[in-house]
Amino acid sequence: MEPIHIKNFLPKQVSTILYQYCLMKFSRPEWRPQIVDRIDKQTDCLAWSRDDDLMQTILDLSTPVVEQNVNKKLYPTYSYLRVYEKGTDLRPHTDREACEYTVALCIGSSPNDKPYNLFMGSLDENQDYQYLDMGNTMQKLKIEHKIPVSVNDAVIFQGIDKLHWREKCNHDHYITVFLHYVDQEGKYADQKFDGKNGL
């Protein structure tokens, strides 16, 4: 499946509420612990939250929109909220089974008029482009998609099949929520609700 880039994914009022909510949530002292076990291992970001109640609501309510775009009946699995800060990145990786279909939605950023590129591609020794992988090894990569993601843009893609990454962030902050789904009739259907009884 080719990635699907959707502008204005949420109604403007909802997008504004989510952004203000995140700014308030992550301004609390408990979201700034300087300890290793709180660091998001994929990015070195300190501000992140899994299965936040409001993001789970967005995950649930967005299901019909995502279904329409991928032409599949889907089960939601989980949501993951992350704040990229200046200097953080996302190393090239593929996702686990519960992320058969992923929506990467930008909730807000500072500055808010500058996109942050989402790359997708594959390993290719014949390429000049290189980036560090999760094991801190420089890899040669073929860039198949370079998608500029602005505020309230969403990208629907299959992260279990394609390497995806982001280079160093130049924003003061860039807030993304990842909404994950699986095909109801696919081989990962048992990942419904990410193994829990419900969202």
* SSE run: EHEHHEEEEEEEEE
List the total number of helices.
3
Basic shape: globular
Number of domains: 1
Distance between the termini: 26 Å
Overall helicity: 10-25%
Tell how many strands the DSSP assignment holds: 11
The appropriate CATH architecture is Sandwich
Spatial arrangement of strands, main beta sheet: 1-9-5-11-3-2
Helix and strand composition category: alpha+beta
- Give me the CATH fold name: Jelly Rolls
Strand composition percent? 35-45%
CATH class label = Mainly Beta
Radius of gyration: 16 Å
Low-confidence stretches: none
Features:
five-stranded antiparallel beta sheet, Jelly Rolls, single chain, 37% strand, 16% helix, six-stranded antiparallel beta sheet, 11 strands, 199 residues, alpha+beta
Give an account of the 3D structure:
This protein has 199 residues and is an alpha+beta fold. The chain has one domain (4-186): q2cbj1_9rhob like domain (Jelly Rolls, Sandwich), CATH 2.60.120.620. Helices cover 16% and strands 37% of the residues. The protein contains 3 helices and 11 strands; from the N terminus they run βαβααβββββββββ. The strands form 2 sheets. Strands 1-9-5-11-3-2 form a 6-stranded antiparallel β-sheet. A 5-stranded antiparallel β-sheet has the order 4-10-6-8-7, with no helix packed on it. A hairpin with a 5-residue loop joins strand 7 and strand 8 (138-149). The longest helix has 15 residues, at 12-26. It is globular, with a radius of gyration of 16 Å. The two termini are 26 Å apart. The relative contact order is 0.25.
